[in-house]
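ok, trying the design again with the full structure, not the truncated one.
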């Protein structure tokens, strides 16, 4: 019997390829990498509230440290940046909210290796803000909303363009902020329902990204949480920052093993409370950018995903902003 645990590596003598076990099945290790695409994993932060809405997109090299650099612009200024997902070369930004208009159903995309403005991709089935996305190597799935409360999920094929298609439903209608993924599973964490009697949640849902259907209960967060950031490699998912009713800010981080089910466990603390922060990741690092504590800040901080402990200073965003969105070409959905 072959002994295997998540993270085990083998050489497949049939295909002559290296493979990694993600806790559920063997995945072929990519012949391309973030380093080949962009000289390292590139993380993007976009949109947000400064307090005026902004259309800025900026980027970092997740594997280094330093301040972010200007990348380009969104189609319009968005106070709530929209949900981010990506494959190795293309990043998608789904939904968000625009001043004077409210939430939208727009999907836009960028080419991660270059710098430039976002381009229209298509439309989601509904308008969404404070939503979250997960992805594998080919598909992006987006769920939740706040202004138009919904439990629906949509999906698109990342390397195509066009309108999204219904995927299924989350276990609870709610705002969705924190999410993470492996190559097989997408995870949605926490959330909140709209007022006047706000209800926040410790729910963790999961989907099998390559199929269609409703989300399944995974377990529970340690804390009820909304406004947190989520990131992962192919094995472990992290939720950090956010708040719980009534706007009590959090610095705590917690983690799950994506291939299992069960409750989250304590990971460590962010260097500063980060309400409505955004996160992106490489196979080794998670990076949280922006947020409020309670004033808006431009702090970028990072963790090592497979260890436990507090975050470390990375650098600064170009603006003091919260409600930004984040994505990377090295996230856990890509193996």
């Amino acid at each position: 019997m072959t002994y295997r645990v998540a993270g085990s590596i083998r050489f497949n003598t049939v295909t002559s390829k290296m493979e990694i076990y993600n806790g559920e099945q063997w995945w072929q290790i990519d012949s391309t990498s973030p380093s080949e695409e962009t000289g390292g994993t590139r993380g993007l932060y976009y949109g947000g509230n400064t307090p005026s809405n902004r259309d800025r997109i900026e980027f970092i090299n997740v594997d280094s440290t330093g301040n972010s650099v200007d990348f380009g612009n969104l189609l319009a200024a968005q106070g709530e940046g929209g949900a981010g997902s990506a494959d190795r070369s293309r990043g998608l930004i789904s939904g968000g909210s625009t001043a004077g208009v409210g939430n939208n159903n727009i999907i836009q995309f960028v080419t991660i290796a270059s710098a430039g403005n976002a381009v229209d991709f298509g439309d989601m089935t509904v308008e969404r803000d404070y939503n979250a996305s997960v992805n594998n190597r080919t598909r992006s799935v987006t769920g939740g909303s706040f202004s138009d409360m919904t439990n629906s999920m949509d999906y698109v094929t990342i390397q195509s363009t066009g309108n999204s298609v219904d995927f299924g439903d989350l276990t609870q209608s709610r705002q969705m902020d924190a999410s993470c993924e492996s190559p097989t599973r997408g995870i949605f964490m926490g959330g909140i329902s709209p007022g006047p009697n706000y209800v926040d949640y410790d729910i963790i849902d999961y989907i099998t990204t390559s199929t269609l259907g409703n989300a399944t209960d995974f377990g529970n967060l340690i804390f009820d949480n909304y406004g947190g950031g989520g990131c992962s490699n192919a094995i472990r998912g992290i939720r950090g920052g956010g708040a719980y009713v009534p706007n009590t800010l959090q610095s705590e981080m917690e983690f799950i093993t994506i291939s299992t089910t069960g409750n989250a466990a304590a990971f460590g603390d962010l260097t500063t409370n980060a309400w409505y922060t955004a996160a992106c990741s490489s196979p080794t690092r998670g990076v949280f950018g922006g947020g409020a504590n309670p004033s808006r800040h431009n702090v970028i901080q990072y963790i090592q995903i497979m260890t436990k402990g507090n975050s470390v200073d990375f650098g600064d965003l170009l603006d003091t902003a919260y409600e930004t969105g984040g994505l990377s070409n090295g996230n856990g959905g890509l193996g």
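Keeping the full-length input from now on. The longest strand covers residues 69-78.
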